[in-house]
Amino acid sequence: MRDKGPTYDRKLGVLLDALQAATSVRGTRCIRTRGRWPQRIWQATFSAPGGHRAGVHGHGLLLSRTQPRPGERLHAPLSALQDPIIDAYLDALPAGATPRITASRTVFVADDRAEALRFAEVGLRRAAEGFRRQGQTIPGDGIDDLIAALDTHLGTPEEVAASLAADTTLHRATEVAFQVHSVDAPHAHVLRSIELFATEVAPALATRSRRRIRDHPHAREHPHREGERMTADIVDQLTGVTRELDALRRRRPVTREQLQASFDALFHPVSAEHVSLAERALIAAFATALAGADDPTAAFYARRAREIDPERAAIVAREAGAAATTGPFGAYTERGLEAESTDGTRYLPDEAASAAVGERLATALAHTHLLVFRPREASGADLGRLHDAGWSTDGIVTLSQLVSFLAFQQWVVTGLRVLQEAGLTAADTATATATDTDTEEEAA
């Protein structure tokens, strides 16, 4: 249907006119209803233009529990598709209008993962067959493939809490609707899933997240009521933040807020024209894994990379393992500092790895290793190699910002976890003073 958008807009206009006043629509009398209709209307959409349309009218935005992927993004996480819809919605929302964003998600919680998989095997396979009959491409046919393709959060309470916490769209929604469909579970197991969600998953999510106004350029234009939005802080997630760590981080509120805002800007950008979302995820997985695959920050970014581009993520993980070394090191060129030069293991992807991930990404990985371990050696020639591999100037700037941010984030997470393991207590955090915050505000 070539004119689907204009047709929708025209019929929506007729509906809104009918709801605003007791007008006649094809001879049918509409009943006047009290209240402001825009605050009662919701629009569901799969696209950013649809999000814009809902925002322009001040309507609520409904996001599906799963949605079709274009051919080049079959393995993209659902949030990578839905966050741009939210961006378009918020950009179009009239000043002073309160955002209303409901995200639906499929959730099935069980006492053990094997039980969850047993029921999912039936329902998800049936759902995938139905989507394929409608013309959608559902990649893979294993149960893990179907779980990823149909955006299903299932398993034990701990697994479901971790899966939901990683879904950035949920952090931006004003409310979330959960359903068991398409997991085909008997009624008793559905009730048990609801019980486990209420008693274990929801409290676990509460400890991972903190309520605050979302980090969006127009956040001040769209104020929220206290407690209306829950935004997950990535550092809090990675540290398993406790009350004591939260109190400690509150001593530096600007740093805390800007660290999360930097994550949002780099991994949920307004435009991914110069560095794709997959490239950002893969470079992040490589850079953080240089500290060791068991590092919690590395594990977080490795999981994100596998969700977006599983084939290249596996190669990047192997390359990071081989490239890991100690540093920083490198040669000083400044007079008087030459004696402080040190050397270490340098990294260049071999021909097989370059062919597997592509020259553009391979060159970026080599540059990332340079910035992580021997930034003092970075030169114009290195930037030239990036240009030759297809990186634009804006792309190179973003790559440098990404590596710099990841180093700082990883440093913060490591430090907080050390404090936590050392037994940080409430008494340790009680020394915070107003001077701490005042100094930080002035510096910011």
Structural class, from secondary structure content? alpha/beta
Shape: globular
* Gap between N and C termini: 52 Å
Residues in helix, %: 55-70%
Q: Give start-end ranges of low-pLDDT stretches.
A: 22-26, 210-231, 432-444
Any guess at the CATH architecture of the largest domain?
A: Alpha-Beta Barrel
* Number of separate helices: 20
How many domains would you count in the coordinates?
3
Return the string of H and E elements. HEEEHEHEHHEHHEHEEHHHHHHHHHHHH
Mean pLDDT: 83
Strand content: 5-15%
Q: Measured on Cα atoms, how large is the radius of gyration? A: 25 Å
Strands, count:
9
Q: What's the CATH class label of the largest domain?
A: Alpha Beta
In CATH, the topology of the largest domain is named TIM Barrel
Largest sheet geometry? 5 strands, parallel
CATH superfamily of the largest domain: Luciferase-like domain
Quick tags:
TIM Barrel, 9 strands, alpha/beta, 444 residues, 5-stranded parallel sheet, 8% strand, two-stranded antiparallel ribbon, 3 domains, AhpD-like
Overview of this structure, please?
The protein is of the alpha/beta class and 444 residues long. The protein has three domains: 32 residues; 198 residues, Alpha-Beta Barrel (TIM Barrel); 173 residues, AhpD-like, CATH 1.20.1290.10. Helix content is 56%, strand content 8%. The protein has 20 helices and nine strands. The strands form three sheets. Strands 3, 4, 5, 6 and 7 form a five-stranded parallel sheet that branches. Helix 11 crosses helix 18, helix 12 packs parallel to helix 14 and helix 12 crosses helix 18. The radius of gyration is 25 Å and the shape is globular. It starts with a helix and ends with a helix. The relative contact order is 0.08.
